Amino acid sequence: MREILGPAFRHRYGVGAFNVVSDLTMAAVLDAAAQTKSPVIVQVSVKTVKILGARMIQLMFTELASRSPVPATLHLDHCPDIAMIKICLEAGWNSVLFDASNLNYEDNLRQTKEVVRMAHACGAAVEGELEAVRGVEDGMGSDEMPELVPLEKCVKFVELTGIDSFAPSIGTAHGLYKTAPKIDFDRVRKIVKAHPTPIVLHGGTGLSNETFQLLIAAGCAKVNISTMLKIVYCDSYREYLSARPKEHDPLKAMAHVHDSIVAMARGFMEVFDSAGKAGQPVNSI
Length: 285
Ligand SMILES: [Zn+2]
Prior knowledge:
With 285 residues, the chain is α/β, with parallel strands linked by helices.
């Protein structure tokens, strides 16, 4: 994760972090990355880990990523449960988001430090979060606006915990936007200026290309896409099968869904400007 986010942050391009739910979706995201020569982050929600198991996801990732020519990493999305983080780290995952945004500042700081110590000992990275990202995703979160932590305390949190990337509240939300979001570009710039660290953009689905590019230029090096993958997955199955009521070959339907997800992910990789960045020596980019 650090090898992927470091160059992205320094050179201000964004790496797509796609929430996958199966082998098909994981392979499609890795294929999109290979086709566009992009580094890529494969991430998985706690809900999916509970269904498939940390070990199986890690094995699936190791196998699929080993066939891919681009840098790829496996990340656990929003996890408030230290026991589950431990299970994933022991299974060999590369990175975790410890989401202690429901705790008060001091408890969050203390527990995040503990997770960073644990993860770094395994060579894994930690994404930290202080304020909840608005919206519900895979049964986690709330539609309430989070209370913002003053900038100084945010920067202290990043410094004291030693997290590898930071997900502040910047006006984005999980799910689909009902009205145009009010993005706080300046908050990203101020945090990055005070303590240069890769910022994570949550709630990517539904933002304009211009918003993505401005946020990436400000320091958002990891761009999360979850809702759009779910929409493309379900809609492409639905379209394919309803157009062919007599079709009963799952592999054909799966190939169609795979191709639709590849096209979606490729589009984001172009917009985030990660296309073409894989394969270049880390020091030269
Ligand atoms: Zn999120």
